[in-house]
Amino acid sequence: MSLKHLGLIGAATMLASATFAQDYLPILQYHHVSASTPRSTSLSPEEFKEHMDYLAEANFNVVDLAKALDDIRNGVALPDKAVAITFDDAYRNIYQNGFPILKEHGFPFTVFINTQPIEQKNRSFLTWDQIKEMTQSGGVFANHTVSHPYMARMEEGESHGQWKARMEKEVADVEAALEEHLGTSPKMLAYPYGESNQEIRTLLTDQGIVGFGQQSGVVSKDSNFADLPRFPAAGNYAKLSTLKTKLNSMPMPLEKVEAGGDFAGEMPVSLTLSFKDGQYRLKDLACYVSGQGKAALNWLDDTTVVAAAEKPFGVGRGRINCTMPNRAGSQYYWFSNVWIRAGEDQRYVSQKN
């Protein structure tokens, strides 16, 4: 075979590798693995096994979260069908019911722990010995604050400075505990209840800590690494049929997003999406408002659309989820934005961030 032919084969191999290299990451979010805990944040051990068995049978590559995020930021390709597994809170049923299944498959995973119940030896939460055992089989443990507070809220009578000092301590004490008990911290934090504000996100960024919310979506190099998305996979989202769609999702090809800040008010929210140059099925874009159904779409030009809610959100968290099929119709682009509608007595630090 000639050198020319060898060169062509090598180029084709490189092209194929580039074609199948993945530069984005869907992340699954779990809490309880139990049939006796609140359904909204739980799935049964049988359901969890079904999820993990499917990942194995469908040849997904379950990756270490921290390394995968570093690779994405540095332009290093992930394996095809890469996915990461996370848990919020340090529930003991993760060790009892989830860990044996993960260990059987050899899947790495990350648990975001709140340390107060661990230090108090609460029987419903992990012990440090269990945590250390799990680290020997692919477990990574990261920050979920000490006491699991609403991080963007002040306590009654608290000044802004006191609130900020309290949040700094909530973060720093867990980092110190991870270093003390495990010898290292992956520098990742999941916001309790998925809530943060710009000050909190800046606090994390200044310390080199990656932040995670609870909005749906897929991580790419264009994501906000102070507020990364994850797909909830428990409760109403535990069905394998819907999970398959999320696992097959890609990041929405957005140039710019305008959401008007973290907080919703008395008027309906809207979301302005500007798409990158490319061939997309923009006419098939669909956005859904939590509790309201489809959002109204108003195209400002060929690549910019405003997705608007019909009614104001009630107190709490509300979102707009947008999806769009790719050109082949085989995968969906996915994006979600969350707003907080503050109650009068909830003392959020700022409703204008």
Give your account of this protein's structure.
The chain has 353 residues and is of the alpha/beta class. It folds into two domains: 21-250, TIM Barrel (Alpha-Beta Barrel), CATH 3.20.20; 255-341, Immunoglobulin-like, CATH 2.60.40. The protein contains nine helices and 21 strands. Strands 1, 4, 5, 6, 7, 10 and 11 form a seven-stranded mixed beta sheet that branches. A hairpin with a 6-residue loop joins β20 (316-325) and β21 (332-341). α2 runs parallel beside α4 (92-105). The model is unreliable at 1-19 (pLDDT under 50).
Portion of residues in helices?
25-40%
Order of helices and strands: HEEEHEHEHEHHEHEHEEEHEEEEEEEEEE
Contiguous uncertain segments of 5+ residues: 1-19
Q: What CATH architecture label of the largest domain applies?
A: Alpha-Beta Barrel
**The CATH fourth-level homologous superfamily of the largest domain:** Glycoside hydrolase/deacetylase
User: Rg, please?
Assistant: 21 Å
- Summarize the main sheet: 7 strands, mixed
Structural class of the helices, strands and pairings?
alpha/beta
Might you state the CATH topology name of the largest domain? TIM Barrel
Task: Tell me which oligomeric state these chains represent.
Answer: single chain
Give the strand content.
Answer: 25-35%
Number of helices: 9
Per DSSP E runs of 2 or more residues, the count of β-strands stands at 21
Distance between the termini: 64 Å
Domain NodB homology: 81-283
Keywords: Hydrolase, Signal
Main location: secreted
Signal peptide: 1-21
